[in-house]
Write a structure and sequence with these properties.
This protein has helices at 23-31, 36-74. By secondary structure, it is an all-alpha fold. It has a domain at 36-75.
Length: 84
């Protein structure tokens, strides 16, 4: 699964919401003293980051493919300056 950095603002505005969770999962999380709100927020943040990455890749796919094709045909620009 791709990972993407997510940085929350230091002072985030909170909004109460309702979520539906599997009852046994919720019970186990509570028994393990997991903060369900924080865990849910982290999961949503990860899902948002992954979706943003997917959308960016889709929007830039043509440019990425063009750049990769150029390198395949011509090699890396300035490669002759590499000493390793």
């Amino acid at each position: 699964m791709p990972t993407a950095a997510f940085t929350r603002p230091s002072v985030a505005q909170r909004k109460a919401t309702n979520v539906t969770l599997d009852a046994s999962l919720l019970a186990e999380a509570k028994s393990l003293h997991i903060n369900v709100s924080q865990a849910a927020e982290a999961g949503v943040a990860q899902a948002v980051a992954i979706k943003r990455e997917e959308l960016w890749l889709a929007a830039n796919r043509e440019a990425l493919e063009s750049s990769n094709a150029y390198v395949e045909q011509n090699g890396l620009p300035l490669a002759h300056h590499r000493h390793f």
